[in-house]
Amino acid sequence: MKPVVLYGSATHDNEGDLAMMRGLIAWLARNGSADRMHLLTRNPERSRRDIGIPCDLSHDTMLLAAPADRPISRAALAWRGLGFLGQVAIWKFGPARWRERFIPPVNRAAIALLAGSAAVIVHGSGSFNSVFWRGWLYPKAITAVALRWLGVPLLMTSQGIGPLDHPLDRWMARRFFRVARLVGVRDGDTSRRVARELGAPADRIVHTGDDAELVPPADDTVVDAALRAESVPAGRPLFGVNFRDAASYAAGHEDTGHALLAAALDHLIEATGVHVVFLPITYDPIDDDRVSADRVVGLMQHAVHTTVLRARYDAATLRGIASRFTALAGASYHALLFALAAGVPVIALTKNSYYAAKHEGLLHWFGCRGAQVLMASPDAAHLAAALIDLVMNREARAAALEAGRAARASAAAEGRARLLREIPR
Asked: 3-class DSSP state for residue 253?
């Protein structure tokens, strides 16, 4: 059978992103595609080690040939895309000798894989937006046009879409949605609405949920061992926190709010007696959650009642740890997701417009819209009151999450079944 190509940009130091990849791969393997999957990636060696399926160097490496720290305009990247599409036309319509002469080896191999595939699946992410236009949106839109020329179905799963606040970004996104045979979104109506506004037909949009949920939580033995190793005290209620530094993602996304959160957590500890556990999701040096956690703890009066998890844990263990929390306040999408999936009430700590869109969609999907605090506006007393209320009224909030569990699972299963039906055998 023809291969099924997974295409995106594997983020190897973000356990939430890795969980989306691993969850999707395991699910496809259980449903008849165990020996068909290939991943197009910018780092094949590490992807093979971390993910365990055949990996090929992505044509993204040529589209994004300028170093990431060197400025490039949107128009220039779109122009590069036209060059790649010219190579696709040569591959499809030109004689074989032209392929050797005019198409670089990396692109030649990638085009051959794409052209020979049964389908291409853009795997889960929260990057289909104007923040990640360079590394995600434009390469995916350019590849969508190539797939239309090659006659290969394009599918998408577990996607957070938006915000798209630049005219050329929206134009590129329209190119993608005109081609995509199925658009699987991971949240409530936020991503669906953006996709519809950009031309995706309503009957092609489905809810797949987040593919990280396909990775089951670790068992109690593993979780207990991790908590003991981190010296998390037994017998005290645990309050989870994640405070992602998003300053590196885009201009204007300043990293603020550490002192505000520190003061609010001190009030929370005094009022409820919880022990605060900082749950890292990303371990990448540019946005390591442990670094942000240390900044907050360093400003707290009751730092002795906190633990920053130091070791790197996989998503299964992180999910298991999140299930032990009384409640969680977080910025990271997957920290919030892991708690919500376990029936743990949350408050989203929303730092900027990028996170506002992600949080809105996630909270809507779990039926707790409005459970967020805009970190640019509250004072410490307001934030502390919200955190204390979250703990004191956790039972009612947890019951509401449990009441919606079956409907969420059913919707996600239906969306994934639709995805499976779109993959030619």
From this structure: coil
* DSSP string covering 66-131: S-TTS---HHHHHHHHHHHHHHHHHHHHS-HHHHHHHS-HHHHHHHHHHHT-SEEEE--EEEESST
User: In Å, how far from its chain's centre is CA 290?
Assistant: 19
Return d(Cα 388, Cα 271) in angstroms, integer.
Answer: 7
SS3 label, residue 63: helix
Q: Collect the ranges in the chain with pLDDT lower than 50.
A: none
**Considering only CA atoms, which of 17, 51, 57, 18 is closest in space to residue 37?**
51
> DSSP 3-state helix, strand, coil percentages of the chain (rounded to 5)?
50, 15, 35
304-362 pLDDT, tens per residue?
A: 999 999 999 999 999 999 999 999 999 999 999 999 999 999 999 998 888 888 999 99
**Residue 405: count of CB within 10 angstroms of its CB:** 13
Phi/psi at 207 (5° precision):
-90, 115
Contact between 202 and 196 under an 8 Å Cβ cutoff? The reply is yes
Exposure b/e, 181-213, CB count within 10 A at least 16 = b: ebbbbbbbebbbebbbebebeeebbbbbbbbbb
Query: HSE (CB half, 13 Å, CA atoms) of 269?
Result: 20
In the numeric block, the tokens 């029936």 are attached to 343
In angstroms, what CA-CA distances link 298 with 110, 227, 256, 259, 284?
A: 48, 22, 15, 9, 21
Rounded-to-integer distance, Cα 144 and Cα 140, Å? 6
Q: Show the beta-strand stretches assigned E in 123-181.
A: 125-128, 154-161
Cα 121 to Cα 183: distance, rounded to the nearest angstrom: 10
Q: In this structure, what are the phi and psi dihedrals at residue 37, rounded to the nearest 5 degrees?
A: -80, 135
